[in-house]
Amino acid sequence: MVTQAVSQRYLRLVLVASAVGTVIEWYDFYIFGSLARVLSQQFFSKANPVAAFLETVALFTIGFLIRPLGALIFGRIGDVIGRKYTFLITLTGMGLSTALIGFIPTYAQIGLLAAMLLFGLRLIQGLTLGGEYGGAITYVAEHTPDKRRGYYTGYLQTSPTIGLLLSLIVVVGTRLALGDQAFNAWGWRIPFVLSLVLVVISFYIRLRLQETPIFTEMKAKRQTATNPWREAFLSANIKYVLIAAVVVIGQGVVWYSSQFWALFFLQTVQKLDVVTSSTIVGIALLLAAPFFVILGSLSDRIGRKPIILGGMALAAITYFPIYSALGRVALPGNVNYPLAVFLVWILVLYVAMVYGPIAAFLAEYFPARIRYTSVSVPYHIGNGWGGGLVPFITSAAYAHTHSLGSALVYPIVVPAVAFVISLFLMPQTHMRTMWAKPAPAPAMGGER
């Protein structure tokens, strides 16, 4: 029986290796969104700029929608073969597909084939990310002590925010170094190609890791799942998967509405240039990043549920006034930087509330033998489908109505509904232990 967590020194290596790799994967994923306007000009016809932009956003969204399939595929591999090698595979696939985007000929060179190649690589990005993040959550959680799981996984939860921040820094830095003309002509390729260097570094660090002690013991005792899909989805466990999916859908919509759509809003609604909008969002992300760890740690004491649901409620209540205020202080040629950064910081603080404790909650909610699969699928349904639709729905709604209220209907209604449902169905998990004999998967119709 597993009785204690690993040494502090090795735990730090686990955190660094997992977080660095995950930051790079999120950088890979979000560099696409950060360059949506440039990509729309490079890979689609320029006859209708608005349609070209929405087509690019649709491709961006495809990467989210495919993620649950990646979660199914790689979740099964992770529960049968192991956590470590699975997310080495996903890291490699993500890095190569991102780098190759930097080498695709443009629409002017090869026509529609350019968009088709971009579509294919975007699918690979989504599939591999679908396997990466659930694996990272599982891997880190299975090394942490029970009473500090929220604190340690909170570091991992900063990785999407830091990945987005890194993408903005690289884009802005490259644009400033080359100038707008050179950047729009060919410099936009550099952030994609840079992914190769980052992935090689991360791959080397991750090779130093061992398998998690919990999975190692299960494998030694032949307690690993033989059919994770059946055990996760054709048993009583499906009830917990569905509850987790509702919670994560609310969390996912808050994440993308508060963080990523803030960038879209500044660029597409307020018409700010890339450097100005990225500077505002980047500073806010940097200032808010520590709160993922702070709130994760707080959830170790008061539980995951009140913090996550508090973030959903605040977001649903205050989105319209915050975005309205942001629209008034972030006008082209007249930007109130301190106030704009403050408003975006509040939005990202909501993200820290819903996202900081979610990794610990998911890892604690499911039995070890099917944890990779059970964590990954609801996570990517919530973030991939629920959250991933935010950029497309909000951008399309605003393009057709030019109404901020219409654009914010989805970001407000979904967290509100998820809050009400989760208030009754989401359990407190912070008192559960993972350092015990691995629990068997529940039988069909039984209770865990």
**Total strand segments:** 2
- CATH homologous superfamily identity: MFS general substrate transporter like domains
Extract low-pLDDT stretches: 444-448
- Using only CA atoms, what is the Rg? 21 Å
The residue fraction in helices comes out at over 70%
**How far is it from the N-terminal to the C-terminal residue, by CA?**
19 Å
Let me know the largest β-sheet. 2 strands, antiparallel
CATH topology grouping:
Growth Hormone, Chain: A
Integer tally of domains: 1
Counting helices, strands and paired strands, the structural category is: mainly alpha
Mean pLDDT: 88
Give the SSE order as H and E letters: HHHHHHHHHHHHHHHHHEEHHHHHH
**CATH class label:** Mainly Alpha
Structure in words:
Helix content is 79%, strand content 1%. It has a two-stranded antiparallel ribbon. The protein has 23 helices and two strands. It starts with 7 loop residues before the first helix and ends in a 23-residue tail after the last helix. Helix 14 (237-269) runs antiparallel to helix 23 (409-425). The protein is globular and about 60 Å long. With 448 residues, the protein is mainly α. A hairpin with a 2-residue loop joins strand 1 and strand 2 (334-335). The chain has helices at residues 8-34, 36-43, 49-65, 67-80, 83-101, 107-110, 112-141, 149-157, 159-178, 180-187, 189-207, 213-220, 228-233, 237-269, 274-288, 290-302, 304-329, 337-355, 358-365, 371-387, 389-401, 404-407, 409-425; strands spanning 330-331, 334-335. The longest helix has 33 residues, at 237-269. It has one domain: MFS general substrate transporter like domains (Growth Hormone, Chain: A), CATH 1.20.1250.20. May be a proton symporter involved in the uptake of osmolytes such as proline and glycine betaine. It is found in: Cell membrane. It is a multi-pass membrane protein. Residues 14-430 form the Major facilitator superfamily (MFS) profile domain. GO terms for molecular function: symporter activity.
